[in-house]
């Protein structure tokens, strides 16, 4: 049996199982490696994948948790994350660093000579630290520029996979004002059935104009139920390849670009991850081979099209999605009449198209008056269904103030068109927004509001950003103590997340990674501290905060600094002595601060 170019880092030589694969969809980032199961336990030996030297060690309660980087002579770097503890020499060095810096979170770069390792050496023990959702080892392979490679490209015999990808759904998405899917301007989802190794639908789909295809699919490995990501997809129209992508070689700094690789809104609304088989505007990932339309395809009236998608995983198991499409016309038609006593107007924005649906009392569809400043434009109906007549308008032509159908009106709150790749400052009476050059993926039709409860809205939470925007809010109700007031993001439901901010006069400025709703809240209550246990060997505390969250802590025993390890998943601080031969004894003072500087001091004796 051929030897893998890399040594498997957990239980080498035996079958292993994965709970996560390279490139699978995570909120706001690609998964950058593989997650190797550790039998639901912590403390399994972790082995160096190849000879080299430990070049970096990081300890944190978040993200990767306890993390080791090994740099190899061929220029590759392997990383081992969510570790429980290091081997004794490494552990002692890191403990000395923590005591020297008097900090739990440390990030250390090491010289080539300090911790050389050979292929197969034990470097640490597996754990569940950082953002881990359960015991496992997260393993990555990078180059010197932090480009993330699929570890399974090294054909580990420890991972068995004879299961081809599974297709759940696909969707057709209009890409132009003349586009139609089954006669309508709509994103339409279809659920195929499996026949042999091919997923298909029996009906021929009627469509028109320029379209994009999205696929919701997962992959599995032998002996595991986990739903993993599909490694590669290729789209062919009538036998011609027009788009392909492989989730490998992802630049670390572009991982957040996943939000343009997938249908981000669909993920947030339905928790379904649809990968796009076309390159959306603002997508800068170097993963694609496409046609001149970037994977979008045009459906012409009267023509028949075979759509074929090849899906493959890291072990070259393949699945096909195949269906037929027939070109239809996009001229006006009617197949129903709304039954209402009073006209009703609804609207939504799909890409750059304003779609207005009017349930009218008239038997025949009437033109819609659209107003931009002092100008009035007549918009003819595109089609009529039982839901109403549909009117389509490209917002690139200018932002409308309102529409009017025989006296029934709808007003819009569009304030400005903001294009990507441009720095832009927008300001009104209650807020300022600075979009940096790389903030936006796509053109944004800005809408803001400020209500009586002092809630500020900027579009909605379905709009994410690649690089943060700088936002300044001017609340109506100025906090009595601004030093305790900050901006919080109001997410889905009743949740709120601390975003911080700096006050200047009666305005506060913060950095926004996503758009949505924001509110200034005051936090005047310090964290709560509860003693869990104390002994000459160890002391531990439970700590939690009511709003802004834990920011810092310091523990002293008889005036000497004591390391407390923070585990955010169970809100616990636990001591570790530098010299294990010296027992803990005397006066203990723990000082804990939240993000707004509220302080709690807890005293006890050992």
UniProtKB/TrEMBL annotation:
Residues 30-87, 116-150 form the M23ase beta-sheet core domain. It comes from the Bacteria. Gene3D superfamilies: Glucose Permease (Domain IIA). This is M23ase beta-sheet core domain-containing protein. The lineage of its organism: Bacteria, Pseudomonadati, Bacteroidota, Cytophagia, Cytophagales.
